[in-house]
Amino acid sequence: MSKPLIQAGPATRWSGDEMKRRVARRYAAERRFRALGLAAVLLSLAFLAFLLVTMIVRGAGGFSSTFLTASDATDPAMAGVWGALKGSMLTILVTMALAFPIGVLAAVYLEEFARRNRWNDLVEVSINNLAAVPSIIFGLLGLAVFLKVMNLPRSAPLVGGLTLALMTMPVIVIAGRNAIKAVPPSIRDAALGVGASKMQVVFHHVLPLALPGILTGTIIGMARALGETAPLLMIGMRAFIAAPPAGVTSPATVLPVQIFLWSDEVDRAFVEKTSAAIIVLLVFMLMMNGLAIYLRNKFERRW
Amino acid sequence: MTKEMQPVTPTTPVPFPSTAIAADAAQDDAGIAKEDTAWTQRPEPTPHLDEAVDSNPTAGEPLGQGAPKMRAQDIKVFYGEKQAIRGVSIDVHEDKVTAFIGPSGCGKSTFLRCLNRMNDTIPGARVTGRIELDGQDINSPDMDVVQLRARVGMVFQKPNPFPKSIFENVAYGPRIHGLAPSKADLDTIVEKSLRRAGLWDEVKDRLTESGTALSGGQQQRLCIARAIAVDPEVILMDEPCSALDPIATAKIEELIHELRGRYAIAIVTHNMQQAARVSQRTAFFHLGELVEYGKTADIFTNPREQRTQDYITGRYG
Ligand SMILES: Nc1ncnc2c1ncn2[C@@H]1O[C@H](COP(=O)(O)OP(=O)(O)OP(=O)(O)O)[C@@H](O)[C@H]1O
Ligand SMILES: [Mg+2]
């Protein structure tokens, strides 16, 4: 301790016992909060670690030399995951190509162009509801509209993608609206103030600033779509398909459905195949989430 | 610090520790100030309003012959139920700087925002009355609001640079209005605007850095540069010097003097001396009303209204 500049100050208010207890309480509260927060993080990580470890232990044997290149087969030794993986990629591609542009457009329209009135409130409530509708209902909708009315091919990534797009769109709209709302109004004022039109304000300033948020929401929606099983069962993607799909209209299956089918097999050898497929699905998802973080950091700007 | 700090003896009454430290520092400064003669030779800032008015030979200028650049008639502004402006009529002249003064919350910014229809963007805000730019009603269907805002530029009360590069901040306006046919032209416009706003020397080597990384005062000057880059006809400045030091403020006041005659300028300021120094016309607002409007010299030396007198002499604010 160095010599104090002022020896006897008049301010004993800050050095009394009561004040010391206050400070001590404040630090104790902070320590408790930190411990609690850390526990919450560890708990969620523990579940992920448990899942990963059990799957790796059980599924490691499932990775034969042909597991990543072969498709489904009746003989577990021959069965591979490539057909389902390709089906998943094609399906998610269709979903992305539809849900992202339409969702972003809708978000921009609702946030920037639609007038604030009762009609708009109704739309808002509907979209929030749509995001909460169970996925199996979307499957039924897909079955009724895409297969029965539009006569699209059964079991195809195209129909799967369309159905999942319906499901993902509200998520993107909600995330997009929130991201657009978070752009500070002063930026809009600044652009309007130099004579930018509404469109220029939106496309030059608001959207670029909202993009990280929109992308995060989109990827979360996509990851959910990737793991979706029930609606795809409804539109017929549950058949035994022994060849990888040639295109978006050929019959296909997807990873989560493949996992579901294999987990139902009586043959014990399929157990480790199931675990191996789960590992592939998890890695696929981790890659998508990694991409989300990369894109977000790339586009993130401060203001 | 060369000499040892002497503890303040507790026998002298010390009201608060900081006072003691300040007193100590003042003693040190006294020694330094004697050596630094340049410091004492600096011109004193004008402490009195009369002197500020006297330093401005144009403060008593009569009106020109021409029609006003902008004319507002019986403007009322409502934010929802709340009325912020209560029937204001005012002319802004092309060859004059018009200063808006008045206590905080009296509606200066609100009125300024009427002039380029920025209040349109506030949900719930309603403006009545007639505003003309060169005789044309700015609310008429013939008037394109985007063009209006390009013609009537604005510097906002809070600095709001785009989160883009410094260059891009200034270049944005000219680019969207097609004012610069070539890259070289754009460079020229950017440099000229930044020079006029007194920012060029500080940023010329870092034009690609983000505008939001500048200091508050630099951001304010960047916003001024952005507004003048579009070459508007009218410039509305809402407290453009609130975050600036005296030297940067002097630069902006110089700029205002320089721009006078080319652009009609309306400036909101809380600094009475500044209003007295830069303007030819002063409008005093109080509680949403225009209390008094006239030649700057008259408002500051011989106001008609008691409320104006009270405000400029600091009796309330
Ligand atoms: N967006 C808004 N919504 C509701 N009321 C507002 C809004 N903006 C301003 N007001 C109100 O209108 C009145 C005038 O505000 P204004 O910003 O014009 O004051 P000002 O004279 O510029 O004050 P200052 O000198 O502090 O900037 C204030 O009472 C304020 O509360
Ligand atoms: Mg204001």
Explain briefly what this protein structure is.
Chain A has 303 residues and is mainly α. Chain A is built from ten helices and no strands.
Largest interface: A-B, 31 and 39 residues
Q: Please count the helical segments of chain A.
A: 10
| SSE order of chain B | HHHEEEHEEHEHHHHEHEHEEHH
Determine the N-to-C terminus distance of chain B: 41 Å
User: How large is the count of helical segments of chain B?
Assistant: 13
Which structural class matches the secondary elements of chain A? mainly alpha
Biggest β-sheet of chain B: count, sense, barrel? 6 strands, mixed
- What is the C-alpha radius of gyration of chain B, as a whole number of Å? 23 Å
Encode the helix/strand succession of chain A as letters: HHHHHHHHHH
Shape of chain B: globular
Bound molecules: adenosine-5'-triphosphate, magnesium ion
CA distance, first residue to last residue of chain A: 42 Å
Helix content of chain A: over 70%
Main pleated-sheet profile of chain A: none
What would you call the structural class of chain B? alpha/beta
SSE diagram, text form:
The complex is a heterodimer of chains A (303) and B (317).
Chain A: H1 17-59, H2 82-113, H3 118-132, H4 135-149, H5 157-181, H6 185-193, H7 198-226, H8 230-234, H9 255-263, H10 269-299
Helix pairs in contact in A: 1-10, 2-5, 2-7, 2-9, 3-5, 4-5, 5-7, 6-7, 7-10, 9-10
Chain B: H1 17-35, H2 37-41, H3 49-54, E1 70-79, E2 82-92, E3 97-101, H4 108-115, E4 125-133, E5 136-137, H5 145-151, E6 152-155, H6 166-176, H7 183-196, H8 200-203, H9 216-229, E7 234-238, H10 246-259, E8 264-268, H11 272-278, E9 281-286, E10 289-295, H12 296-301, H13 306-312
Parallel strand pairs in B: 3-8, 3-9, 6-7, 7-8
Antiparallel strand pairs in B: 1-2, 1-4, 4-5, 9-10
The structure holds adenosine-5'-triphosphate and magnesium ion (MG).
Q: What does it look like?
A:
Chain A is built from ten helices and no strands. Chain A is 70% helix and 0% strand. With 303 residues, chain A is mostly helical. The mean pLDDT of chain A is 88. Chain A has helices at 17-59, 82-113, 118-132, 135-149, 157-181, 185-193, 198-226, 230-234, 255-263, 269-299. The longest helix of chain A is centred in the N-terminal third of the chain and has 43 residues, at 17-59. Chain A folds into two domains: 17-62; 65-299, MetI-like fold (Orthogonal Bundle), CATH 1.10.3720. Chain B is 38% helix and 20% strand. A six-stranded mixed β-sheet of chain B has the order 6-7-8-3-9-10, with helices on both faces. In chain B, strands 2-1-4-5 form a four-stranded antiparallel β-sheet, with helices on one face. The two termini of chain B are 41 Å apart. Chain B contains 13 helices and ten strands. Chain B has 317 residues and is an alpha/beta fold. Classes of the chains: A mainly alpha (303), B alpha/beta (317). Residues 79, 84, 102, 104-110, 122, 157 of chain B line the site of adenosine-5'-triphosphate.
